[in-house]
C-alpha cells in the first residue's frame, strides 16, 4: 500500500496536497483509485468546483495507463461525484459533505458498578443458547425466514404463554401475545396506540425509572406521576389521574422495591374498570425472589384491563432485545399494526432460540442458577451495608437485583452520584426518579454485577462518598479494608433530627 500526494491534484487544488490512499497492486488500482477520489470528495478534501487533472496527466503521474484513469472518471461521473464536459478535465460536483460526527461519549465502565438496571451478563447461558439456536435453526420451517406475523413467532408465543401461566400466573392465549424488542418497545407500541386513540398523557409511578418516561415522551405523550409508598402505588390518588393508562411495577416497585399490597392490587384493578383505564404491568425482574414465594402478576386478576409486559433483559441479557406483551383482546390488532409499521416483526431466529430455551427447560435452569448467585450477592450486600452504613436501612431486598437506601431530605443524592463517579463508582440517585409529590433522596444500589468477594470493598468505597458529601465525620474503623470505610450514621441521625 502506498499513500500518494499527487502533484497533479496538488496543482488542481491550488497548491494544497490532497492525499489519496492508493494500493498500486495490479488488479486493485481501478477500484482503489475510484474509492480514493470518491472518499476525498465525500469528506471535503476535494471541494466542489475543484478541477481534477486531465486523465492523461493523472495517468502519467501515477504511472498507470490512461484507460484506468478515464474509466475511473467515467464511473465517478455516472455516480454523480464528477461533472465532465467534452475535452475538459472533470470538475468535482456539489456533493453534500457529511459533517464529522461528534465523538460518542463512551459508556462509562465502572470500577465498582452499582447501576441497578443491568444484570450480570457474565451469567448469560452461552452453551445453552448455542444449543437452542442450533435446534431452532435446524427445525425452523422456511416460512420462519420470510416476513411473518407481526405479533412474532407462534412457537415463542406458545412457549411464553405456558411459562408465564406457570411462573407468573398470567392468563394468556398465544393469539393475544406480541413479541417485542424488550419492555421499551412494548411501552412504545402501547404509547402509539394510546396516542392514536386520542390520549395526551400516560401515568407512571413516582418514583420510577426516569429513562422509561422518555419512551412515551418521544411519541408525544406527557407523563403524569402517581406517588408510591411502602405498599406500592397510592391507589387513593388514582381518581386524580387523567391518563388512560398507568405503568406500574407491582411485583417489585422500581426503584423503592415495594411489593404492591393485595388490597392495592384489587383497588388498582377496580379503578381501571370503574374509570375505563388500562394498567401496564412492567414485570421486569419478577423471577428474582429470595425470601418468599413469588407474587403473581396483576394481569391474572383481570386480563381485560392489564397489559402485561415481560423482558429477557434481566433474566438473560439486555442485548438480546426480546420482550413480550400479553394483551387485552381489544388491543391486539392495534399493537400488531403498530409493530408491523415499526419493524415488520422481531428477528425470527432469536425468537425461535428463546422458544427452544424455554421448552427444553434450560431457561428455568438458568434462572434458578442466576437466582442462587444473586441471592448470595444480595446477602453479602446486606452484611456489608450493616457494617459500613449501619444507619441506612436497605429497602426492597426480598426480590430483584437492587436495594434502595433512603437518605434524609437535605442530603444531595445527585452530589453523591458525582462524588462516586469520580472514584469510578456507578450508582443512581433517587431524586431524579421522582415525578410528583415530594422529592425523595436516596441511592438505588444494584448488586447484580458485584461478586461476593468484592462487595465489602465496594460498599466501603460507597460509604466514603457518602461521608464526603454528607460532611459526616467518619466513625472509627472497625477493620482495615483497602480503602477507608466511612459509614454515615451520624449523617442520618444529624439530618433527620
Ligand atoms: C423498571 C424497568 N423496566 C423494564 C426494564 C427493561 O427494559 P428492556 O426490556 O427494554 O431492556 C428495565 C431495565 O433496566 C427496568 O429497570
User: Taking strands numbered 1, 2, ... along the chain, how are they ordered across the largest sheet?
Assistant: 6-13-12-11-10-7-8-9
Terminal CA distance reads 73 Å
Spans where pLDDT lies below 50 across 5 or more residues: 471-497
Shape: globular
Assign a percent range to the helix content: 25-40%
- The fraction of residues assigned to DSSP E strands is 5-15%
The kinds of small molecule bound in this structure are: pyridoxal-5'-phosphate
> What is the CA-based Rg, rounded?
30 Å
How is the main sheet built? 8 strands, mixed
Estimated structural class: alpha/beta
Q: Find the count of extended strands (DSSP E, 2+ residues).
A: 18
Task: Describe this protein with a few key phrases.
four-stranded antiparallel sheet; about 500 residues; alpha/beta; eight-stranded mixed sheet; binds pyridoxal-5'-phosphate; disordered C terminus
